[in-house]
Write a structure and sequence with these properties.
Layout lengths: L5 E2 L11 E2 L2 E2 L9 E8 L20 H7 L1 E2 L1 E4 L2 E5 L2 E6 L5 E6 L13 H10 L4 H6 E8 L2 E6 L6 H5 L8 E2 L2 H14 L7 E7 L3 E6 L10 E8 L3 H10 L4 E2 L4 H8 L5 E15 L12 H10 L2 H9 L4 E2 L21 H10 L6 E8 L4 H13 L2 E5 L4 H10 L5 E6 L5 H5 L15 H12 L3 H18 L2 E13 L3 E3 L18 E2 L3
Parallel strand pairs: 4-15, 4-16, 19-20, 19-21
Antiparallel strand pairs: 1-8, 2-3, 5-12, 6-7, 8-9, 9-11, 10-11, 13-14, 14-15, 16-22, 17-21, 17-22, 18-22, 23-24
Protein backbone atom coordinates (compact mmCIF):
# COMPACT_ATOMS: atom_id res chain seq x y z
CA UNK A 1 0.00 0.00 0.00
CA UNK A 2 1.21 3.44 -0.83
CA UNK A 3 2.71 5.27 2.07
CA UNK A 4 0.38 7.82 3.66
CA UNK A 5 2.13 11.09 3.08
CA UNK A 6 -0.18 14.05 3.45
CA UNK A 7 -0.46 15.17 7.04
CA UNK A 8 -4.02 16.21 7.92
CA UNK A 9 -4.58 18.47 10.89
CA UNK A 10 -1.70 17.00 12.88
CA UNK A 11 -1.23 18.45 16.31
CA UNK A 12 -0.59 17.33 19.89
CA UNK A 13 -2.94 18.32 22.65
CA UNK A 14 -1.27 21.21 24.45
CA UNK A 15 -1.98 19.75 27.83
CA UNK A 16 -0.88 16.23 26.93
CA UNK A 17 1.58 14.66 29.36
CA UNK A 18 4.95 13.68 27.84
CA UNK A 19 5.59 10.26 26.36
CA UNK A 20 8.36 8.25 28.01
CA UNK A 21 9.67 5.00 26.52
CA UNK A 22 6.52 4.65 24.48
CA UNK A 23 4.27 5.01 27.47
CA UNK A 24 2.37 7.94 28.97
CA UNK A 25 4.40 9.43 31.77
CA UNK A 26 2.53 10.02 35.03
CA UNK A 27 1.58 13.63 35.68
CA UNK A 28 4.06 15.27 37.99
CA UNK A 29 3.66 17.99 40.57
CA UNK A 30 -0.08 17.42 40.76
CA UNK A 31 -1.87 16.79 44.03
CA UNK A 32 -4.25 13.92 44.40
CA UNK A 33 -7.91 14.58 43.60
CA UNK A 34 -9.88 15.89 46.56
CA UNK A 35 -13.41 16.88 47.41
CA UNK A 36 -16.78 16.48 45.76
CA UNK A 37 -18.57 18.64 43.18
CA UNK A 38 -22.31 18.35 42.51
CA UNK A 39 -24.36 19.43 39.49
CA UNK A 40 -28.11 19.85 39.16
CA UNK A 41 -29.04 18.72 35.64
CA UNK A 42 -32.25 19.85 33.97
CA UNK A 43 -33.29 16.48 32.54
CA UNK A 44 -33.16 12.95 33.84
CA UNK A 45 -30.01 11.07 32.84
CA UNK A 46 -31.09 8.30 30.46
CA UNK A 47 -29.39 4.97 31.31
CA UNK A 48 -28.45 4.59 27.63
CA UNK A 49 -26.18 7.65 27.92
CA UNK A 50 -23.74 5.54 29.94
CA UNK A 51 -22.97 3.56 26.78
CA UNK A 52 -21.69 5.54 23.75
CA UNK A 53 -22.78 2.73 21.47
CA UNK A 54 -26.40 3.23 22.48
CA UNK A 55 -26.54 7.01 22.18
CA UNK A 56 -27.44 9.14 19.20
CA UNK A 57 -25.23 11.87 17.85
CA UNK A 58 -27.11 14.42 19.98
CA UNK A 59 -24.87 16.34 22.30
CA UNK A 60 -26.74 15.86 25.61
CA UNK A 61 -25.06 12.49 26.37
CA UNK A 62 -21.72 14.34 26.24
CA UNK A 63 -22.43 15.06 29.93
CA UNK A 64 -21.50 11.44 30.53
CA UNK A 65 -19.11 10.78 27.66
CA UNK A 66 -16.69 13.54 28.68
CA UNK A 67 -16.50 11.99 32.14
CA UNK A 68 -16.44 8.23 31.61
CA UNK A 69 -15.18 7.85 28.06
CA UNK A 70 -12.68 9.19 25.57
CA UNK A 71 -12.35 9.39 21.80
CA UNK A 72 -9.60 9.37 19.19
CA UNK A 73 -10.40 12.99 18.40
CA UNK A 74 -12.87 15.27 20.16
CA UNK A 75 -13.82 18.90 20.81
CA UNK A 76 -11.48 20.43 23.39
CA UNK A 77 -10.41 23.95 24.40
CA UNK A 78 -9.13 25.85 21.40
CA UNK A 79 -9.99 23.21 18.80
CA UNK A 80 -13.18 21.24 18.18
CA UNK A 81 -11.10 18.54 16.48
CA UNK A 82 -8.33 17.82 19.00
CA UNK A 83 -6.19 14.63 18.96
CA UNK A 84 -6.98 12.71 22.14
CA UNK A 85 -6.64 8.92 22.16
CA UNK A 86 -5.01 9.42 18.77
CA UNK A 87 -1.74 11.35 18.69
CA UNK A 88 -2.51 12.40 15.14
CA UNK A 89 -3.69 11.21 11.75
CA UNK A 90 -2.83 11.26 8.06
CA UNK A 91 -4.88 11.29 4.87
CA UNK A 92 -3.78 9.41 1.76
CA UNK A 93 -3.17 11.31 -1.51
CA UNK A 94 -6.31 9.82 -3.06
CA UNK A 95 -8.30 10.94 0.02
CA UNK A 96 -9.69 7.45 0.59
CA UNK A 97 -7.65 6.33 3.62
CA UNK A 98 -7.35 7.90 7.08
CA UNK A 99 -4.68 6.46 9.34
CA UNK A 100 -4.65 7.21 13.09
CA UNK A 101 -1.65 6.81 15.38
CA UNK A 102 -2.87 5.79 18.81
CA UNK A 103 -1.42 6.68 22.19
CA UNK A 104 0.48 3.84 23.82
CA UNK A 105 0.27 2.67 27.39
CA UNK A 106 -3.33 3.67 28.05
CA UNK A 107 -5.62 1.43 30.08
CA UNK A 108 -9.36 1.26 30.57
CA UNK A 109 -10.77 1.70 34.05
CA UNK A 110 -10.70 -2.07 34.61
CA UNK A 111 -7.04 -2.38 33.58
CA UNK A 112 -7.60 -3.66 30.03
CA UNK A 113 -5.05 -2.16 27.61
CA UNK A 114 -6.32 0.22 24.93
CA UNK A 115 -5.55 -0.90 21.36
CA UNK A 116 -6.80 -0.52 17.81
CA UNK A 117 -9.10 -3.51 18.37
CA UNK A 118 -11.19 -1.35 20.72
CA UNK A 119 -11.40 1.46 18.15
CA UNK A 120 -12.66 -0.84 15.38
CA UNK A 121 -15.08 -2.60 17.70
CA UNK A 122 -16.52 0.71 18.96
CA UNK A 123 -16.97 2.10 15.46
CA UNK A 124 -19.05 -0.80 14.22
CA UNK A 125 -20.96 -1.16 17.49
CA UNK A 126 -22.20 2.46 17.62
CA UNK A 127 -25.84 2.76 16.57
CA UNK A 128 -25.54 6.39 15.44
CA UNK A 129 -22.94 5.74 12.73
CA UNK A 130 -25.30 5.39 9.74
CA UNK A 131 -23.62 8.01 7.58
CA UNK A 132 -20.08 6.95 8.40
CA UNK A 133 -20.80 3.26 7.95
CA UNK A 134 -22.15 4.00 4.48
CA UNK A 135 -18.91 5.78 3.59
CA UNK A 136 -16.38 3.40 5.21
CA UNK A 137 -15.46 0.33 3.15
CA UNK A 138 -13.20 -1.27 5.76
CA UNK A 139 -11.46 -0.62 9.06
CA UNK A 140 -7.97 -2.09 9.00
CA UNK A 141 -5.90 -2.74 12.11
CA UNK A 142 -2.31 -2.17 10.97
CA UNK A 143 -0.85 -2.93 14.39
CA UNK A 144 -2.06 -2.45 17.99
CA UNK A 145 -1.46 1.31 17.75
CA UNK A 146 -2.29 2.11 14.13
CA UNK A 147 -5.68 1.88 12.47
CA UNK A 148 -6.88 2.78 8.98
CA UNK A 149 -10.33 3.74 7.78
CA UNK A 150 -10.75 2.89 4.08
CA UNK A 151 -13.50 4.86 2.32
CA UNK A 152 -15.45 3.82 -0.77
CA UNK A 153 -14.72 7.23 -2.26
CA UNK A 154 -13.33 10.56 -1.04
CA UNK A 155 -15.56 11.92 1.72
CA UNK A 156 -14.28 15.32 2.86
CA UNK A 157 -16.59 15.32 5.90
CA UNK A 158 -15.19 12.15 7.44
CA UNK A 159 -13.44 14.05 10.22
CA UNK A 160 -16.40 16.39 10.68
CA UNK A 161 -18.51 13.35 11.57
CA UNK A 162 -15.88 11.21 13.29
CA UNK A 163 -13.53 13.78 14.79
CA UNK A 164 -16.12 16.12 16.31
CA UNK A 165 -18.36 13.22 17.41
CA UNK A 166 -21.28 14.32 15.23
CA UNK A 167 -21.98 10.60 15.51
CA UNK A 168 -21.15 8.64 18.66
CA UNK A 169 -18.88 6.23 16.77
CA UNK A 170 -15.70 7.99 17.88
CA UNK A 171 -16.10 7.21 21.58
CA UNK A 172 -14.12 4.09 22.50
CA UNK A 173 -15.26 1.25 24.75
CA UNK A 174 -13.31 -1.88 25.79
CA UNK A 175 -13.97 -4.74 23.35
CA UNK A 176 -13.07 -7.60 25.70
CA UNK A 177 -15.14 -6.27 28.59
CA UNK A 178 -18.23 -5.59 26.47
CA UNK A 179 -18.04 -9.04 24.91
CA UNK A 180 -17.70 -10.54 28.39
CA UNK A 181 -20.58 -8.75 30.15
CA UNK A 182 -22.81 -7.99 27.17
CA UNK A 183 -24.60 -4.74 26.38
CA UNK A 184 -26.88 -5.03 29.42
CA UNK A 185 -23.92 -5.65 31.71
CA UNK A 186 -22.06 -2.69 30.27
CA UNK A 187 -25.00 -0.39 31.00
CA UNK A 188 -25.02 -1.58 34.61
CA UNK A 189 -21.31 -0.88 35.04
CA UNK A 190 -19.74 1.05 32.15
CA UNK A 191 -15.97 0.98 31.73
CA UNK A 192 -14.17 3.66 29.79
CA UNK A 193 -10.95 5.59 29.25
CA UNK A 194 -12.16 8.93 30.58
CA UNK A 195 -11.01 11.08 33.51
CA UNK A 196 -13.72 9.65 35.78
CA UNK A 197 -14.80 6.13 36.71
CA UNK A 198 -18.35 4.93 37.19
CA UNK A 199 -19.40 4.37 40.81
CA UNK A 200 -23.18 4.09 40.74
CA UNK A 201 -26.27 5.24 38.91
CA UNK A 202 -29.62 5.68 40.61
CA UNK A 203 -31.96 6.21 37.63
CA UNK A 204 -33.86 9.46 37.87
CA UNK A 205 -31.89 10.54 40.95
CA UNK A 206 -28.13 10.79 40.53
CA UNK A 207 -24.99 9.48 38.85
CA UNK A 208 -21.81 9.19 40.92
CA UNK A 209 -18.27 9.06 39.47
CA UNK A 210 -14.76 9.12 40.94
CA UNK A 211 -11.48 10.40 39.54
CA UNK A 212 -9.31 8.24 37.31
CA UNK A 213 -5.91 9.17 38.68
CA UNK A 214 -4.09 7.61 35.72
CA UNK A 215 -5.93 9.66 33.10
CA UNK A 216 -3.47 10.43 30.30
CA UNK A 217 -4.18 14.15 29.89
CA UNK A 218 -4.01 15.23 33.52
CA UNK A 219 -5.01 14.04 36.98
CA UNK A 220 -8.49 15.40 37.77
CA UNK A 221 -8.60 17.96 40.56
CA UNK A 222 -11.91 16.86 42.08
CA UNK A 223 -12.19 13.38 43.57
CA UNK A 224 -15.92 12.77 43.15
CA UNK A 225 -18.50 14.15 40.74
CA UNK A 226 -22.25 13.79 41.29
CA UNK A 227 -24.83 14.56 38.61
CA UNK A 228 -28.30 15.04 40.07
CA UNK A 229 -31.45 14.99 37.95
CA UNK A 230 -33.56 18.01 38.92
CA UNK A 231 -36.16 18.91 36.31
CA UNK A 232 -37.54 22.12 37.93
CA UNK A 233 -35.46 25.29 37.57
CA UNK A 234 -36.70 26.71 40.87
CA UNK A 235 -35.69 23.50 42.64
CA UNK A 236 -32.23 23.59 41.04
CA UNK A 237 -31.83 27.18 42.25
CA UNK A 238 -33.03 26.34 45.75
CA UNK A 239 -30.52 23.47 45.96
CA UNK A 240 -27.76 25.84 44.87
CA UNK A 241 -28.70 28.35 47.58
CA UNK A 242 -28.69 25.64 50.23
CA UNK A 243 -25.32 24.31 49.10
CA UNK A 244 -26.79 20.96 48.05
CA UNK A 245 -25.28 21.42 44.58
CA UNK A 246 -22.40 23.53 43.32
CA UNK A 247 -23.57 24.16 39.76
CA UNK A 248 -27.21 24.48 38.67
CA UNK A 249 -27.61 24.23 34.91
CA UNK A 250 -30.16 26.04 32.77
CA UNK A 251 -31.92 28.63 34.91
CA UNK A 252 -34.94 30.53 33.63
CA UNK A 253 -34.63 34.32 33.51
CA UNK A 254 -36.52 35.18 36.76
CA UNK A 255 -34.57 32.56 38.71
CA UNK A 256 -31.27 33.70 37.20
CA UNK A 257 -31.97 37.33 38.12
CA UNK A 258 -32.83 36.31 41.67
CA UNK A 259 -29.56 34.39 42.05
CA UNK A 260 -27.64 37.29 40.56
CA UNK A 261 -28.63 39.39 43.57
CA UNK A 262 -27.09 36.85 45.96
CA UNK A 263 -23.48 37.90 46.72
CA UNK A 264 -22.48 34.29 47.41
CA UNK A 265 -23.53 33.05 43.98
CA UNK A 266 -22.78 34.02 40.41
CA UNK A 267 -24.10 33.38 36.93
CA UNK A 268 -22.15 31.91 34.03
CA UNK A 269 -23.37 31.72 30.42
CA UNK A 270 -22.59 28.91 28.01
CA UNK A 271 -23.89 27.13 24.94
CA UNK A 272 -23.99 28.47 21.35
CA UNK A 273 -23.98 25.03 19.74
CA UNK A 274 -27.72 24.35 19.83
CA UNK A 275 -30.08 26.17 17.46
CA UNK A 276 -33.74 26.45 18.38
CA UNK A 277 -35.98 26.48 15.33
CA UNK A 278 -39.51 25.91 14.13
CA UNK A 279 -39.87 22.63 12.25
CA UNK A 280 -42.91 22.62 9.98
CA UNK A 281 -43.68 18.90 9.95
CA UNK A 282 -46.63 19.13 7.55
CA UNK A 283 -45.12 21.44 4.92
CA UNK A 284 -44.76 18.51 2.49
CA UNK A 285 -48.51 17.75 2.56
CA UNK A 286 -50.19 19.70 -0.30
CA UNK A 287 -53.43 19.78 1.72
CA UNK A 288 -51.81 21.43 4.74
CA UNK A 289 -51.68 25.24 5.17
CA UNK A 290 -48.01 24.78 6.05
CA UNK A 291 -47.37 23.71 2.45
CA UNK A 292 -47.67 27.37 1.44
CA UNK A 293 -44.41 29.32 1.81
CA UNK A 294 -46.42 32.45 2.71
CA UNK A 295 -47.88 30.67 5.75
CA UNK A 296 -44.45 29.53 6.94
CA UNK A 297 -43.11 33.06 6.45
CA UNK A 298 -46.07 34.46 8.38
CA UNK A 299 -45.21 32.18 11.30
CA UNK A 300 -41.63 33.47 11.26
CA UNK A 301 -42.72 37.10 11.11
CA UNK A 302 -45.07 36.53 14.07
CA UNK A 303 -42.29 35.58 16.48
CA UNK A 304 -40.78 38.42 18.52
CA UNK A 305 -37.35 36.86 18.85
CA UNK A 306 -35.78 39.78 20.71
CA UNK A 307 -38.45 39.78 23.40
CA UNK A 308 -38.22 36.00 23.58
CA UNK A 309 -34.46 36.24 24.02
CA UNK A 310 -34.80 38.66 26.94
CA UNK A 311 -37.53 36.59 28.56
CA UNK A 312 -35.73 33.27 28.25
CA UNK A 313 -31.97 33.88 28.29
CA UNK A 314 -31.55 37.48 29.54
CA UNK A 315 -30.71 38.47 25.98
CA UNK A 316 -27.65 36.20 25.82
CA UNK A 317 -28.64 34.02 22.86
CA UNK A 318 -27.54 34.97 19.35
CA UNK A 319 -30.49 35.59 17.04
CA UNK A 320 -30.07 33.94 13.65
CA UNK A 321 -31.78 33.06 10.40
CA UNK A 322 -29.49 30.09 9.86
CA UNK A 323 -29.67 26.42 10.78
CA UNK A 324 -25.88 26.25 11.22
CA UNK A 325 -23.95 27.94 14.08
CA UNK A 326 -21.92 30.84 12.76
CA UNK A 327 -18.66 29.43 14.15
CA UNK A 328 -18.96 26.25 12.09
CA UNK A 329 -16.96 25.76 8.91
CA UNK A 330 -18.99 26.59 5.78
CA UNK A 331 -21.67 28.41 7.79
CA UNK A 332 -23.49 31.15 5.89
CA UNK A 333 -24.39 34.10 8.17
CA UNK A 334 -28.08 34.88 7.72
CA UNK A 335 -30.08 37.63 9.37
CA UNK A 336 -33.00 36.57 11.49
CA UNK A 337 -36.46 36.92 10.01
CA UNK A 338 -37.88 40.28 11.22
CA UNK A 339 -40.72 40.67 13.70
CA UNK A 340 -43.63 42.01 11.62
CA UNK A 341 -47.07 40.77 12.74
CA UNK A 342 -48.87 43.10 10.32
CA UNK A 343 -47.01 41.59 7.39
CA UNK A 344 -47.70 38.12 8.81
CA UNK A 345 -51.46 38.76 8.77
CA UNK A 346 -51.21 40.11 5.23
CA UNK A 347 -49.43 36.96 4.05
CA UNK A 348 -52.02 34.74 5.73
CA UNK A 349 -54.80 36.65 3.96
CA UNK A 350 -53.03 36.29 0.62
CA UNK A 351 -52.71 32.56 1.26
CA UNK A 352 -56.47 32.31 1.83
CA UNK A 353 -56.58 32.53 5.62
CA UNK A 354 -57.78 36.08 6.45
CA UNK A 355 -59.09 34.85 9.81
CA UNK A 356 -56.15 32.60 10.50
CA UNK A 357 -56.39 28.83 10.77
CA UNK A 358 -56.16 25.90 13.16
CA UNK A 359 -52.57 24.76 12.76
CA UNK A 360 -52.61 21.50 14.71
CA UNK A 361 -50.24 20.60 17.51
CA UNK A 362 -47.25 22.60 18.66
CA UNK A 363 -44.62 20.53 20.45
CA UNK A 364 -41.92 22.22 22.53
CA UNK A 365 -38.69 20.26 22.76
CA UNK A 366 -38.37 19.20 26.43
CA UNK A 367 -37.61 21.00 28.75
CA UNK A 368 -38.18 24.27 26.84
CA UNK A 369 -41.88 24.41 27.63
CA UNK A 370 -42.05 28.09 28.59
CA UNK A 371 -40.29 29.06 25.39
CA UNK A 372 -42.78 26.95 23.45
CA UNK A 373 -45.69 28.71 25.14
CA UNK A 374 -44.33 32.14 24.20
CA UNK A 375 -43.94 31.06 20.57
CA UNK A 376 -47.47 29.59 20.58
CA UNK A 377 -48.83 32.90 21.91
CA UNK A 378 -46.94 34.88 19.25
CA UNK A 379 -48.42 32.67 16.53
CA UNK A 380 -51.90 33.07 17.99
CA UNK A 381 -51.68 36.88 17.80
CA UNK A 382 -51.64 36.68 14.00
CA UNK A 383 -54.28 33.93 13.82
CA UNK A 384 -52.18 30.77 13.76
CA UNK A 385 -53.93 28.72 16.43
CA UNK A 386 -52.10 25.69 17.80
CA UNK A 387 -52.74 23.06 20.44
CA UNK A 388 -49.86 23.08 22.92
CA UNK A 389 -48.68 19.49 23.58
CA UNK A 390 -45.88 18.60 25.99
CA UNK A 391 -44.12 15.25 26.25
CA UNK A 392 -41.40 13.69 28.37
CA UNK A 393 -38.03 14.03 26.65
CA UNK A 394 -37.40 10.36 25.78
CA UNK A 395 -40.94 9.92 24.47
CA UNK A 396 -40.67 13.07 22.38
CA UNK A 397 -37.31 12.06 20.96
CA UNK A 398 -38.67 8.66 19.94
CA UNK A 399 -41.79 10.17 18.33
CA UNK A 400 -39.76 12.85 16.53
CA UNK A 401 -37.36 10.28 15.12
CA UNK A 402 -40.22 8.00 14.05
CA UNK A 403 -41.76 10.98 12.18
CA UNK A 404 -45.12 10.37 13.82
CA UNK A 405 -45.59 13.95 15.07
CA UNK A 406 -47.90 16.30 13.14
CA UNK A 407 -48.11 20.09 13.18
CA UNK A 408 -45.06 22.11 14.24
CA UNK A 409 -42.26 21.84 16.76
CA UNK A 410 -40.14 24.35 18.63
CA UNK A 411 -37.16 22.05 18.29
CA UNK A 412 -33.45 22.23 18.96
CA UNK A 413 -30.56 20.58 17.16
CA UNK A 414 -27.02 20.48 18.53
CA UNK A 415 -24.58 18.28 16.61
CA UNK A 416 -20.92 19.19 16.25
CA UNK A 417 -19.13 19.23 12.91
CA UNK A 418 -19.57 21.72 10.09
CA UNK A 419 -22.42 23.01 7.93
CA UNK A 420 -22.71 19.73 6.06
CA UNK A 421 -22.85 17.50 9.12
CA UNK A 422 -25.25 19.86 10.90
CA UNK A 423 -27.72 19.69 8.00
CA UNK A 424 -27.23 15.97 7.32
CA UNK A 425 -30.21 14.65 9.28
CA UNK A 426 -32.69 17.43 8.38
CA UNK A 427 -32.07 18.64 4.83
CA UNK A 428 -31.35 15.72 2.45
CA UNK A 429 -34.15 13.28 1.75
CA UNK A 430 -32.43 10.40 3.58
CA UNK A 431 -31.95 12.39 6.79
CA UNK A 432 -33.27 10.78 9.96
CA UNK A 433 -35.55 13.78 10.64
CA UNK A 434 -36.40 14.73 7.05
CA UNK A 435 -40.09 14.71 6.09
CA UNK A 436 -39.61 15.64 2.45
CA UNK A 437 -37.10 16.92 -0.05
CA UNK A 438 -36.46 19.71 -2.54
CA UNK A 439 -34.83 17.86 -5.48
CA UNK A 440 -32.37 20.65 -6.29
CA UNK A 441 -31.29 20.97 -2.67
CA UNK A 442 -30.92 17.20 -2.37
CA UNK A 443 -28.78 17.08 -5.51
CA UNK A 444 -26.57 19.91 -4.24
CA UNK A 445 -26.11 18.19 -0.89
CA UNK A 446 -25.03 14.93 -2.52
CA UNK A 447 -22.72 16.80 -4.88
CA UNK A 448 -20.93 18.71 -2.13
CA UNK A 449 -20.41 15.50 -0.15
CA UNK A 450 -18.18 14.22 -2.97
CA UNK A 451 -16.45 17.49 -3.81
CA UNK A 452 -12.83 17.65 -2.62
CA UNK A 453 -12.22 21.26 -3.65
CA UNK A 454 -12.89 23.28 -0.50
CA UNK A 455 -13.95 26.49 -2.25
CA UNK A 456 -16.41 24.66 -4.49
CA UNK A 457 -17.85 22.87 -1.46
CA UNK A 458 -18.26 26.11 0.40
CA UNK A 459 -20.11 27.66 -2.54
CA UNK A 460 -22.51 24.71 -2.73
CA UNK A 461 -23.12 24.63 1.02
CA UNK A 462 -23.75 28.38 1.06
CA UNK A 463 -26.21 27.94 -1.79
CA UNK A 464 -28.08 25.24 0.14
CA UNK A 465 -28.34 27.43 3.23
CA UNK A 466 -29.56 30.37 1.16
CA UNK A 467 -32.24 28.22 -0.51
CA UNK A 468 -33.45 26.92 2.87
CA UNK A 469 -33.74 30.52 4.05
CA UNK A 470 -35.56 31.79 0.96
CA UNK A 471 -37.97 28.85 0.89
CA UNK A 472 -38.58 29.07 4.65
CA UNK A 473 -37.96 25.38 5.14
CA UNK A 474 -37.39 26.08 8.84
CA UNK A 475 -37.84 28.90 11.32
CA UNK A 476 -34.45 29.45 13.01
CA UNK A 477 -34.69 31.42 16.25
CA UNK A 478 -31.28 31.64 17.91
CA UNK A 479 -27.97 30.08 18.79
CA UNK A 480 -28.91 29.12 22.32
CA UNK A 481 -26.86 30.56 25.21
CA UNK A 482 -28.20 30.23 28.73
CA UNK A 483 -27.36 31.02 32.36
CA UNK A 484 -26.25 28.57 35.02
CA UNK A 485 -25.79 29.24 38.72
CA UNK A 486 -22.35 28.76 40.29
CA UNK A 487 -21.94 28.11 44.02
CA UNK A 488 -19.32 29.59 46.35
CA UNK A 489 -17.19 26.42 46.57
CA UNK A 490 -16.45 26.31 42.82
CA UNK A 491 -13.04 27.42 41.62
CA UNK A 492 -13.24 26.59 37.90
CA UNK A 493 -16.64 25.53 36.50
CA UNK A 494 -15.09 24.89 33.04
CA UNK A 495 -17.98 26.53 31.20
CA UNK A 496 -17.21 27.57 27.61
CA UNK A 497 -13.62 26.40 27.88
CA UNK A 498 -14.75 24.49 24.81
CA UNK A 499 -16.50 26.99 22.54
CA UNK A 500 -19.17 26.25 21.53
CA UNK A 501 -20.23 23.81 24.25
CA UNK A 502 -23.03 24.08 26.85
CA UNK A 503 -21.72 22.34 29.97
CA UNK A 504 -18.69 21.89 32.19
CA UNK A 505 -15.84 20.38 30.17
CA UNK A 506 -13.25 19.06 30.13
CA UNK A 507 -14.32 17.62 33.46
CA UNK A 508 -10.73 16.97 34.51
CA UNK A 509 -10.35 20.78 34.47
CA UNK A 510 -13.08 21.63 36.99
CA UNK A 511 -11.81 22.70 40.40
CA UNK A 512 -13.00 23.55 43.88
CA UNK A 513 -11.64 26.56 45.69
CA UNK A 514 -8.75 25.81 47.97
CA UNK A 515 -9.42 26.38 51.64
Amino acid sequence: MKRLVREFAWMLVALCTPLVAGRVAPAEAQTKPEGEMRWALYVTVAPAWLDPGETSGFITPFWIQYALHDALVKPMPGNIMTPSLAEGWTLSPDQRVYEFRLRRGLKFHNGDPFTAEDVKFSFYRAKSSRILKEKVRDVEIVDPFRIRFHLHEPFPDFMAFYGTLATASGWVVPKKYVEKVGDAGFLKHPIGLGPYKFVKDTPGIELVMEANESYWRKVPSVKRLIFKSVTEATTRAAMLKKGEVDIAYLLDAPTALELKRDPNLKLAFSGAIGIHFIDFFDQWDPKSPWHDRRVRMAANLAIDRRALNEAETLGASRLTGAMVPRKFEFALPLETYPFDPAKAKQLLAEAGYPNGFDAGNLYPYPPYFQMGEIVANDLATVGIRTKFVTMERAAFQKAWLSKSLKGVCVCVHALYGNAASRMAEFVPGDGSFSRGVDPDVDALYKQQARETDKKKREAMLHQIQQLLYERVRFGPIWEYIWPSGIGPRVGEPALLKIDPYPWSAPLEDVTLKTK
